[in-house]
Amino acid sequence: MKNHGIEIENLQKSFQDIQALKGVTLKIEKTGLYGLIGPNGAGKTTLLKCVSSLLVPTSGEVYINGNLVKPKNFAVRRKIGFLPEDSGLYEKLTAKQFLHIMAGMHGIPKEERKNKVKEVVEFVGINYPPSKIVKYLSTGQRRLLLFASILLHDPEILILDESLSGLDPINREHITKLMRELAKDRIVLFSSHILADIWRLCEKIFVINQGELIVEDQPENILSKMSDDSYFLTVKMGLEAIKEYLENYPKVSVIGIQNDKLLFKTENKDLISEVIKDIMKDFEIVSFGPNIPDLDQIFTRMVTAS
Ligand SMILES: Nc1ncnc2c1ncn2[C@@H]1O[C@H](COP(=O)(O)OP(=O)(O)OP(=O)(O)O)[C@@H](O)[C@H]1O
Ligand SMILES: [Mg+2]
Q1: Is the CB of 45 inside a 6 Å radius of any atom of ligand 1?
Q2: The domain 6-224 belongs to what CATH superfamily?
Q3: How far is the CA of 209 from the centre of ligand 2 (A)?
Q4: Which residues contact 130 (CB under 8 A, 6 or more apart)?
């Protein structure tokens, strides 16, 4: 018997000569939010579709709550709600008709559909008339509709491909809140290029590059592993002079000046307070601290190092 949650074993997927996934193995057991990041074409959508049984892997397996995922295993499919990156919404229907059709496709009995549709519309907070034609919905309105549609069958696991992209900050926050709420008693695995969201929301981050899982860790661990123990300082005046001073200071190496910040390293961490005290004898320091790379820099470092 396999564990609960999502278990992926040596998953490979090729499209003719393109190896989109080259043997990904990962496990998610606890409820919560899990982020999948990686450059364009890394294999994120392919992975999420294999987990959701919308793509058949070339080799390897995916288990959901211990059950093997395969296209005809409808019992497993019903446990999953998949939000696609590019939606296949029926353009000519009204939003309400769309939800009713989806409810039918999920096998919800006719007499229950009305209530179920009402429930998901309220939960997701669809704030436009349900009589609106899908074709004329904005990106944000479509996302809300799709979100509602994947909740109709009460899935135990949510797989969201780029659920936060293309949204204004208010809608992004709105969808984020929904994801957080749903992740209280579900596993929610989502891909995103919005690193700040991934960083602040996720229990764990999976980084995929060229079809391979290259990093799997908690956000704070990735941050500390990627920081290089350097420091920054800023002053009102005399940055060049401090640079020169530190260049001649024993056991200190100067990285350079970037955007009004002087970046430098000490041979060991214990030296730093002494160095700062010495600088303050002659200069007025405005700000000082560990030089933590920004999220874009961390992403680039992870991907280029692999
Ligand atoms: N149906 C397909 N036929 C052929 N190649 C495909 C197909 N689907 C994906 N690929 C290829 O597989 C690789 C992985 O694509 P995938 O869509 O999974 O990347 P992604 O990480 O989701 O990228 P993005 O961030 O741009 O959405 C790419 O090289 C892509 O061109
Ligand atoms: Mg994608």
Answers
A1: yes
A2: P-loop containing nucleotide triphosphate hydrolases (3.40.50.300)
A3: 12
A4: 94, 95, 96, 99, 121
Average pLDDT, the chain: 92
Model confidence at 222, pLDDT cuts 50, 70, 90, reads confident
Q: Residue 35: CB within 6 Å of ligand 1? A: no
State in Å: Cα 104 to ligand 1 middle: 30
Stretch 105-117: mean pLDDT: 94
CA distance 208 to 210: 7
For residue 47, give the ligand 1 atom closest to its CA.
18
Task: Identify the pLDDT of residue 23.
Answer: 97
Could you tell me the two tokens for 98? 């769309």
48 CA distance to ligand 2 centroid (A)? 9
- Distance from residue 227's CA to the centre of ligand 2 (Å): 28
Chain segment 146-172, per-residue pLDDT in tens = 999 999 999 999 999 999 999 999 999
d(C-alpha 70, C-alpha 54), whole Å: 9
Q: Regarding the domain delimited by 229-290, which CATH topology (the fold level of the hierarchy) does it fall under?
A: Alpha-Beta Plaits (3.30.70)
Domain ranges of the chain: 6-224, 229-290
Are 49 and 11 in contact by the 8 Å Cβ rule? The answer is no
Closest ligand 1 atom to the C-alpha of 43?
18
